[in-house]
Each structure stands twice: as structure tokens, then as C-alpha cells.
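User: Let's play a game. I give you a shape written as C-alpha cells, and you guess the letters that built it. Ready? Here's round one.
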């Protein structure tokens, strides 16, 4: 039975990876909150085996944007149990971007969260999370001039930024059993970034004007508030597990940018709405201490306008986990 399920799981995984490259996706790991605390996918649940109190996960993320930039992230995700019911998580990403305008690299935004188990028994757990994201920079990295010397010092679009440039607050809750995970969360930007990309400055420097104007302006962007729901079905076996789920993220308020002429903030049309993704992952557990995981997804719906630069054509994540 397990061998048959494993075979079909691998076939399904391969099909989804191949088809995924044709679909637009927003990398939630960039925005942050859907992998924090109680909202995190593929959470462990086994009341018969006492889990280790500390977890270190190192992951590699690759995403291709809808324009030219390729986004790569190595992320260190550390979780520590303070008590049997209270845990703390920190995520430290390092990001590098390769694109037609320039190449950038640097620390990504730092995520901090605390998760409290508020109810549960042998069959389920209910937990709540409160956290924040700390920007690693102001979201306004400048062009180095390595590809176009005339562009040196010009602000780069958000796709090239290693930080969203804002302080964010995050809250959420989850219900988890051996088979199911239901989670919801909210992420709100408390501050603006300092991005000053302006297409007009690049026209005449980059040879394709239409390509330049495909980048959305994000002048001192204040992102709208996101609400997420995660529904995930898990299939757990002795040495491996597989899950499939849906992740709808709804931006409930419009993004705002500063008008360059008046200095006043204006709300951007078509920045609210639903982004819906089908997600799946496969994990292999060498023992109670070591595991590897491959995750991917397929986007069915997205917002029309994304000045934050989070839209992706495909996203694949490979992770190694260590419990101690």
C-alpha cells in the first residue's frame, strides 16, 4: 500500500513541477506570513512520538518572475520550544536576483514569531501566532552600472529588491490533526518603503522601452493588507509524507504609492483581490532527526497589478530539516 502510494505521489509531483512552469505564481515565502508559526505548511503531528524541541531548516528557493529577474533565496528557519505549549521562530533569508537591468544580492527581511498552543488533545491542536517582519533595507537598491553604465545609481524595480522595505505585523491561527491542517492569517504593512524606480529614467538606457514600462511603479509603496487561508490534506507514513492543499490569499486594501508631482498618496486600482494557489510537497524522513522536502505549487488566480514585485512564473523549494 505504501509503495503504491509513494509511486503515485512521485508521479503527481513530477507532473505538477513540469506544468507549473507555465503558470504565474506569487511566491508567498517572499511576503512571509504563510510560512510563519501556525500558518506554516506541512507541520508535524504525532502524539505517539515525542518530537524534538528544536528545529533547523535550511532551504533553497528559486523563482522566475513574469519579467526577466530570477530570484534565488537561501533561508535559515529556526524554531525553538520555550515550553511545551509556547514556541519561537526566526527566519533569516539571503537573496540574490539576476535580471536584465542588474544583479543584486543581500539579506532578505527577517521574520520573528511566537506561537502558543491554546487547545488540543490526542486528535488535534489549535495554535495562535503573533509575529513581525523586519526589513533588511529600505527597498531602494540602486543599479551598479555593471550592465548599463549610464544606469549607475538609478533606483531598481521591486523585482530586484532583496527587501520589501517595510515593517509588517503578522497574526494567525491553525487547527492541525494527523490528516488535516486549517490555518488563517493576516499581514499588514506598518510603514512604507523608499523605492524610487521611475521608468522614464530608464527609457533611452535600456533598448526596449515597452519592457521598461512593464515594471510597476512603487514610489514609497505602502502595501495593502493580506488575509490568507490554508487548507491542507496530509498523508503520513513511517518514513515519508505527502500533502496537497489550497492557499487563497486576498489583498483586502489597495496598495498605495506617492505621487511624484504632488507628494500625496494615491490608491492603485486592481491591486486588491484573490490570489489562489494549489500547493503540494513531498518529504522523506531519514529518522526522527533528519528529513528532506520538495515543495511546489500552481497558481490559478492572481491580482492584475502587483507593484510589490512578488509575482512569479514558477517557484520550487528544496529544504533540509534537522531536529534536536
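Assistant: Ready! My guess for every position:
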Amino acid at each position: 500500500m505504501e509503495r503504491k502510494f509513494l509511486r503515485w505521489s512521485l508521479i503527481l509531483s513530477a507532473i505538477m513541477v513540469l506544468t507549473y512552469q507555465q503558470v504565474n505564481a506569487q511566491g508567498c515565502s517572499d511576503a512571509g506570513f504563510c510560512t510563519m508559526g501556525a500558518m506554516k505548511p506541512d507541520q508535524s503531528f504525532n502524539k505517539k512520538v515525542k518530537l524534538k524541541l528544536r528545529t533547523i531548516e535550511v532551504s533553497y528557493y528559486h523563482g522566475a518572475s513574469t519579467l526577466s529577474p530570477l530570484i534565488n533565496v537561501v533561508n535559515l528557519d529556526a524554531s525553538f520550544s520555550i515550553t511545551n505549549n509556547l514556541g519561537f521562530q526566526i527566519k533569516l533569508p539571503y537573496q540574490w536576483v539576476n535580471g536584465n537591468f542588474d544583479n543584486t544580492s543581500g539579506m532578505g527581511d527577517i521574520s520573528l514569531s511566537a506561537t502558543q498552543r491554546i487547545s488540543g488533545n490526542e486528535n488535534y491542536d489549535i495554535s495562535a501566532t503573533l509575529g513581525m517582519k523586519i526589513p533588511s533595507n529600505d527597498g531602494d537598491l540602486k543599479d551598479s552600472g555593471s550592465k548599463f553604465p549610464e544606469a549607475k545609481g538609478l533606483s531598481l524595480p521591486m523585482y530586484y529588491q532583496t527587501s520589501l522595505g517595510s515593517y509588517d505585523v503578522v497574526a494567525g491561527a491553525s487547527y492541525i490533526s494527523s490528516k488535516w491542517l486549517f490555518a488563517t492569517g493576516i499581514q499588514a504593512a506598518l510603514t512604507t518603503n523608499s523605492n524610487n524606480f521611475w521608468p522614464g529614467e530608464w527609457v533611452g538606457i535600456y533598448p526596449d522601452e515597452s519592457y521598461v514600462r512593464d515594471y510597476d511603479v512603487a514610489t514609497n509603496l505602502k502595501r495593502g493588507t493580506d488575509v490568507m487561508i490554508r487548507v491542507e490534506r496530509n498523508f503520513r507514513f513511517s518514513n515519508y509524507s505527502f500533502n496537497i492543499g489550497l492557499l487563497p490569499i486576498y489583498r483586502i486594501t489597495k496598495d498605495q504609492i506617492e505621487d511624484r508631482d504632488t507628494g500625496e498618496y494615491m490608491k492603485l486600482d486592481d491591486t486588491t483581490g484573490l490570489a489562489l494557489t494549489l500547493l503540494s510537497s513531498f518529504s522523506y524522513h531519514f529518522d526522527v532527526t533528519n528529513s528532506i522536502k520538495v515543495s511546489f505549487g500552481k497558481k490559478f488566480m492572481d491580482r492584475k497589478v502587483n507593484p510589490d514585485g512578488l509575482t512569479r512564473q514558477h517557484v520550487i523549494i528544496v529544504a533540509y530539516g534537522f531536529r534536536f
